[in-house]
Amino acid sequence: MKIAVLSRNSNLYSTRRLVEAIQAAGHEALVVDHSICDLIIEQEGPSIIFKGQKLTDIDAIIPRIGASVTFYGTAVVRQFELMGAFSANNSQAIVRSRDKLRSLQILSKAGLGMPKTAFTNFSKGGEKQIIEHVGGAPLIIKLLEGTQGLGVVLAETKKAGQSVIEAFHGLKARIIVQEFIKEAKGADIRAFVVNGKVVGAMKRQGAEGEFRSNLHRGGKATIIKLSRAERAAALGAAKALGLDVAGVDMLQSSRGPLILEVNSSPGLEGIEKATGIDIAGAIIKFIEEGVQKKSPKRGADQ
C-alpha cells in the first residue's frame, strides 16, 4: 500500500512516528504538505498536484491538519476521498471537531457530560448574564479559534470575568464561557481512540500555578487507567463526532467525566512517551483494515 501522511512538517514527532509505523508494516510512506497541494476539478474527475506531480495510487491518507489551515486542509482530504483513498478521519468529521461550538452542541445532544457552557451574540451589558448562566465565578473564557491552551483565560471573580468578556467582545472575538471545575485541580485526561477502542490514556497535570494542563504549557503526563465511565465518555465523544482517530480531553469531576474537547489530529509524542504504547502502529493497523473493507459509506457524506 501507499499511505500519505498529510503534514506540513516531516520532522514533527507525530509525522516521523507515522512514517516509521507505515514502513515497519511493509508499506510505502509519503509525506504530503497539504498546504501546497493544487486541487484539479474537471469532468475527467478530481486530481491532486503536489510539487508539480500528479498524486496517483494513494491507497490511504492520515490527515495531520493544523487548525490554522482547516478549510484548505479538509478540502485536500475531501479530494483524496473523492479519488477513492481511505482516510483515517473523514473530512466532515474533521470539520465538525474543529468547530468548538458545533462539537459541543453535538456532544450535548448525545447526552455526554461536559462543563456547563454558554455562547451568545453579545450586546452591551450582557456580560453579567452569561456569567450567571455558567454558575458565576470562577469561570473559564475560551476563544473559539484557540489551540494548545492559547486563548484560554481563568477569571477568578465576576468582575474580572466581565472585564475579559468585554475586552474579547470589543475585539470582535468569538468566545465561549464555561464553568470552572475546581476539583480537577489543574489536571485533565487525554484518551486516545482508534477505531472505536481506547488504545492509550494519560493524565496531564498543569505546571505549578497553571490551571491549563496542556503539555505545550509545561504540563506533565503520566499513564492512567480509565474508569468505565471515562472510557465510555471517550468512545461516545469520538463516535458522536464521527472520528475514527481522536484525542478526547476530559476532566475528572464530582459528577463524572466531563468532556472538554475532541481533537481530530492528536499529537503522538505525549501519549506514546507517557504510556509506552505504539499508538502510531495502532493507527496503521486500523488503516490496513479500512482499506480492505473499503466501505462505500465513507465517501457518501461529502
Describe the secondary structure blueprint for this structure.
Elements: E1 2-6, H1 13-24, E2 28-32, E3 37-40, E4 47-50, E5 53-54, E6 60-63, H2 70-82, E7 86-87, H3 91-98, H4 100-109, E8 117-118, H5 127-133, E9 139-143, E10 152-155, H6 158-170, E11 175-179, E12 187-194, E13 197-205, E14 220-223, H7 228-241, E15 245-253, E16 256-263, H8 269-275, H9 279-293
Parallel strand pairs: 1-2, 1-6, 6-7
Antiparallel strand pairs: 3-4, 4-5, 8-11, 9-10, 9-11, 12-13, 12-15, 13-14, 15-16
Helix pairs in contact: 1-9, 2-3
Plain-language structure description:
With 302 residues, the protein is of the alpha+beta class. The protein is 33% helix and 26% strand. The chain has nine helices and 16 strands. A five-stranded antiparallel β-sheet has the order 14-13-12-15-16, sandwiched between helices. Strand 1, helix 1 and strand 2 (28-32) form a beta-alpha-beta unit. Helix 2 (70-82) packs antiparallel against helix 3 (91-98). The longest helix is centred in the last third of the chain and has 15 residues, at 279-293. The radius of gyration is 20 Å and the shape is globular.
